[in-house]
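Feature request, filed as a ticket because there's no other form

It would be nice if the structure record came with a short human-readable summary line next to the tokens. Right now we just get the raw output. Example of a typical job, pasted below so the devs can see what we mean:
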Amino acid sequence: MKETSDLIELEAEKNLARSVLKVPSEERLLLIESGWTSRVYLARQGELVCKFPRYQDVKKEYEVEIEILRALASVDLPVQVPEVLEVGNDYRYLAYYGVKGDVLKFQNIESDDKKLIGQAIGRFIKTLREKNLRMGHDMALDKEISEYLEKYELGKPHWARVLSIEEYEALDNFMTGEYEIRMKSLGFKGECSHGDLGFWNILFDKESGSIRVIDFGDYGIYDESIDFVGLRDPEILNEALEPFGDTEELRAKIHLRQSLLPVLEMPYYASKSLENEIVQLTDALRKGLLSELKTALEAKND
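Raw output as currently delivered:
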């Protein structure tokens, strides 16, 4: 149960969002609290959005997001993106004209729609690279490796709880040894990237066939593979990769990072005690990375 002071603060925040978005009191304003970095208020099914940072550091992401959205406003894109409406003092809030649509859930997407979505996302990634808008984050390979290892350390107690002894030892041996070697062996090619381009930040309006991309706070220079990692449906991934040439090296980079998504996500879900999500992460790790490690070990022992 929220403390009284928290409820008062949330009500004041909601009133501010309503004022900024010019939404009358009789009109519904939906609060989305599930975001990792922000509390988000939506009006008119996402047509208007106002978000508030959960932490001080998130304001840096707002600064990046505002800069790239304003730069993209004059670019002809194959997807729709939000338009900045208003920015609060010291990035207290960010309001924008949003993009309506449903967050992708790849289990429910028809094959023709997957092709449409994959092609649009592939062209979008290509456009970002061609425009070469060098701003925001600079995720060099050593920094990326450090962040993965930091997330793993934060999640270790929870992995020890949900995995068997053998599974945990296999994961720990990989993360403290082979992981860094494998990442470096695949190399690094820096490209302008969205930085967090997963299904969670892609909206699809089936009625109009429009694809929308949101949340540009992680925009910057990353390895060429990063914007493909969140495309976990094979059909969508294949379509998105088509404009770039389907190389084994690029596929290997994507696959390694995809296999480690549960490691990156565990600290957040554990901090919120979201047991259903933790079960899903554990299942994904077992079917992915742990299965591969087991197969490799068995082949080595034969």
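Something like this underneath would help us a lot:
The mean pLDDT is 93.
Residues 103 and 203 are 5 Å apart (CA to CA).
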